[in-house]
Structure formats: C-alpha cells, structure tokens
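Job type: complex structure
Entries:
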Amino acid sequence: MSRILGIELRRSGALLAGTATAVIGVAGLYVLALTGQTGLWDQQWNLLAVFQRIMLVVLWPLALAAGAWQAGRDRRSRIEELLGTTPAPGWRRLRPSALATALCLTTGYLLVLVAGAVKVATTAGYPGSGWQAVTAVGVLALVAAGLLGLGLGRLLPYAYTPAVLGAGSLACLLAAIEATKLDDATKPGWALLLPYFTSTISEFQAVGGAASAGQAWWLGGLAVGGLVLYLATNRLVRTLAVAPPALGLLLAAPMLTVTAFPVDAAAVAEVCTTDGGPRVCVTAAHSRKLPMLVAPARQALRLLAKLPNAPTSVHEAVPVPTRPQPASEAWLDADNLSSAGGPAELTARILAGAGTPLCLRNEDSDYLAVLRARAVTAAWLYGSHPVPGPALAPAEQALRDTMWKAFIAQPEAEQQRRVAAVRAAGLDCGDQAAALGIGAGR
Amino acid sequence: MATTVRAEGLRVRTGRHVAVNGVDLSLGAGVHGLLGPNGAGKTTLIRALATVLRPHDGRLQLLGQPMEARPDLRAIRRSLGYLPQEFGYYPRFTVSEFVEYMAWLKEVPGAERRRAVRNALERVGMAERAGSRMKALSGGMLRRAGIAQAIVNEPELLLLDEPTVGLDPQQRLDFRALLRDLGERSCVIVSTHLVEDVAAACSSVVLVDAGRVVFHGTPDDIASAGSGSDAGDSPIERGYSALIARHRTAPAVAR
C-alpha cells in the first residue's frame, strides 16, 4: 500500500490541507511579531504548545472542511461507477486517503511547532513540562477533525458539505469562546472537550496530565468515529460510528473536573546567583533573565539599605506566591523582567513599594492609588522624581508630581517612616496607599 | 470455447424503464461488437455485465458464476476490465499513477503491478505520456488511458463502452489491432456506434434494438443481410440498416 499512499500524499487534497495548516499556523505565530506580542508563545515550550492549541480554533474547522472535501473526490471526479467494478472493498480503497489526510495534517501541525521552536529555542531557558503531551493532543485534535470531515463528507455527499462544515464549525467554536468564559480559568471543565484551548496559560503553569489524558480519550474517540464513518460500507457500521466518541467521552468525563492548568512546580523553583554577592533569584521559568537582573537588583538593595530591617536579597515574585514574603527579601513582580526598558528602570521597579510586589489587580478600585503610592516610594528610594520608565499621561504625571511635592515637604524622618510603612504593608499585602498617607482621599 | 458471458431472458432496469428486455446471449473469447442505435440498451447491458446494475429478471452468468445466486463478486471483478461511457478519473493523478491505482484496486499483486502498468500503457501507446497529469490529456488520450486501466489486470472479460470516441484515424487503427490481440485470450465486448470499427476488429456482432438482441452473427453475416436499396455507405452499414428496419417492422406485423 506504500506506493498508493505515496500517490495519495502527492495528489490528494491532504497535501493542500497539511500545507494550509502549516502556513496558517506559522502566520498565526509570527503575525504577533508585528505588534511585539510573540511573548505570548516564545518564552517557553509549554506556551508554544498551548498557543498552537489555541490556534486550533481556526485550524480545526479547516481540517474538518478539508476532510469533507477529500471525501467528495470520487463524486466530483465521476469515478464512482468505475471504482464500484473493482474487487477491492470500499474500506480498503479509502484507507490510503484517510492515512494521507492524517499524515499531512500531523506534518502541518508539527511544522508549525518547528517554526515556533526556532524562536523559542533562542528565547526560552526553562523547557516547561508536559509540552510534548499538549502537542500530541493537538495533533490528535487536528487528525480527528480531518477524519471526522472525511466521515461526514461521505455521509453527506453534497457539493456544499465542506463549506457548511467549515463555516459552521468555525462559528460554533468562536461562539464557544464566549460561552465558556469562566471565573476559574484553571478549571475549564467541559470546555476541555473543545478541540482548542479557550485561554492561554502563564509561564508558571502546565497543562495537567489528567486533562491531557481526558482530552486524548475524547479526541481519540472522535477520530476513530470519523474513521469508522468514512470506511463504513453499510448503515449498521455507520450507526456504530457513534460508539467510539461516546466511549471516549465516558472515559474522559472524570478527568475533566480536575485542575487543568496547575502550577508547574519546576517552573516556579528559584535559580539564584552563587557569586558570593547579595543573592538575586529568579524562577526557573525565567532563568535566562538572571544575568540581566543581577546588577539592577544589587543597586536596588543598596538603595533599600536606607530602611530599617532592609532586605538583603532580591527574588522574582510569581503571580500566585507559594510562601509569604520575608522582611529580608525584596520581591519583584515577574512581568517586570520582560517589560522593563533598561537596568535603571528595572532598579526603579524593584524599588516600587519598597521591594514588594503589587497585590492588587487592575480592576480593583484602589489600583491607581496604590500604583501612585508605589511610584512615590520608588522615587524617594531612587533619589529622584520621576524614576526612569515610560512617560505617563500628563494628567497622571501632574498628580504624581503633586504627591511627590507633598511627600518631600514632610520631615526627613517622617518620609523614611512612611516608606518603611509602605514596605511593611506590602509584605502583608496590605493597603500601601493608606500607608503612604498622601494622595486623593488619604 | 468456454463461455464467459451467458444471458437468458435477461431484463435490466434503469429506474422504471426496462432498458434490457429479454436478452439471450452467449459469448466466449473473441471480440464482440455491441451495435445499435441510441437508446437501444447497449450501455445498460454493458453496465449489467460490469456488475454495476443488478439484473431485474432472467439469468446472467459471468465467468461461470450465476448472478441471481450469491456470486463471488470480488472474484468476478478481479477478472473484469471496464471502460464506462462516461469515464471518470482523478485529474491530479498522472497517467501512470492512475493506472497503478486502478491496478491496486483490481488486486494486481504488488510485485507485478509496475510491470503491468508499463505494459498496459505501452499497449495503448501512452508510455511516453505516463508522467502527464490526467487533466492535461486530450479526449483521445483520456480514452486510451481509460483503456489502459481497463486492461491492466489482463481481464478475462473486458467491457468497453464507446472506446473509440475521440481517437484519430491512426489511433483507431492501432486500437483495432489491440482489440484483436486482446480477443485472442479474453472475451472483449465493445459497445460502439461506429460500424466500420466492428467490421474491422470484431469476430462477432450483437445487434441490439429496443432492449432486445436483433441479430448475433459475424460482420460478414451483417453485410450480407443488406441490399443496394438499404441506407449506408458500405455493405455492413447497409446490412445494419436492413436488420434494424426489419426488426422494427416485424412486431408491427405481428400485432
């Protein structure tokens, strides 16, 4: 069958489907370079694998339509009568085209991975764990779409079947993004049955093995069901095609209630300097950023030394800390590592909140007030206002200037006391704006 | 001579219409022309012999297997070659790939397949176009590619429905030679409108009209049935016209 498979690989629509998958997938990755957003996937292998799964929202309907198109080849070529006079059973005749479709879609998907890997390999330090399973399930999802398309295309032998399946499934998947928006994104539940991920994960998360296993059961069942539908030669077998997806769903159901995106313990583990100087630590996920952080972090420690019980080491803070911040440590929010413009700006960001991370989310009502208090603290420690960093809106800058003037009008000892109070509040995730005691409403 | 096709009172329907209406036939090795006007039932008869249509009534035996029982269709089809009137093909395939694909479907063993493909293409004069895409072929070349796929499995029963459509005069001469060669070992049934092809290549002629066999004999028998007053430019054309006219008037007299 290998020569016939070779013919199918060269001449059938499968090649086009695989090529389209690769081209659209690679374009989907690198179009983000235009807006400087490749950080969504190039920081870690896990992120790349998950981002590929998100792109299935487009690639899955495409594979479904391509499968249905391939299934209609005999009808379009008006060759059904001739084929019907050959001794080979229908299922044997259709096997190479099903295999070619699966192989081409798999190759297309993996080519996207390879294209992304070129960038990830130069950017990411920590490999992330479990990305291979995420990719394997992605391949399975795409192959399931192709095989399901073949099956449905044979079941519904109409010229418009591919277009209806493609457009219809795309509309359904897009609608599902809205329908599955959840408060707890780590537990998507039944949304895991969708062939794509509805949201991305952070560098500190992994895709749980149970979630991947559950998805593999379901998508595997769907793929087998599609294949049975495609190869079926009578109504009974066509009816039996619902059994594999049903069985897959049954096996997958218990696994879909677990935490799908748990914290990756290996990613949040610390990697620290060992040169004998003040310790500077980042997470394993950001280990490549450590050399860049060392000098600004030690400069920040020198400036923080003005405070009583000053910290002696700098640590990257993860979004969901696994331990309370000790007074001996200065913490820096993880996102500053990639967004800070230079060493001076990085130092200023460590000094914001006097070496404490931001506890609020931007939808909280105190968010802006706390940001301003942290900016004033940073300026006092840095020794100049404003601190190095991006320009603010004039109104916001004017407000901060006013706060700064009011703050430095205080006696020196009072200034130091208030900055220490801001740090103390930050260590307990308290109200830093209230601790500073300057600003609107304070 | 072994009988490859035997039909007794064979009736075949296309929809509600009985297109083959009580055909009695017995054919063995040789080239048999199936001649008749449009709508005579030639294509329906060929499709029934190709196992595309099931007989509605009567008896049909193909390669020794009765079709009214539970025939081993797979065995019959393994020894069958068929060129339909409307020849469908995969346009993106090359000629060689298409014929090889058909050889695979006809269960030609893998080791022999490439040789069988090469041989079939050489016999129809398409070896030099083996690498051409099917969609790039002219009408005559497509027909020859269709014949190549029909003969690639060295069939015992070869059914060709209008095989000479689109062939130029030289190609038709070559095709007649090929038919004579194939007919030495196989039962070749050729449905055609072209009376001169029948005269040149067929060992027997089955004349069909209104779903019935009007005449079964040699080309010389047909030629001798005509007279100078019958329509046609050659003896066999005049014989053909005479036999059809005779058949059409006979039932009216009987009624």
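Summary: The first helix of chain B runs from residue 42 to 49. Strands of chain B lie at 3-14, 17-28, 30-35, 57-62, 65-66, 80-83, 157-161, 187-192, 204-209, 212-217.
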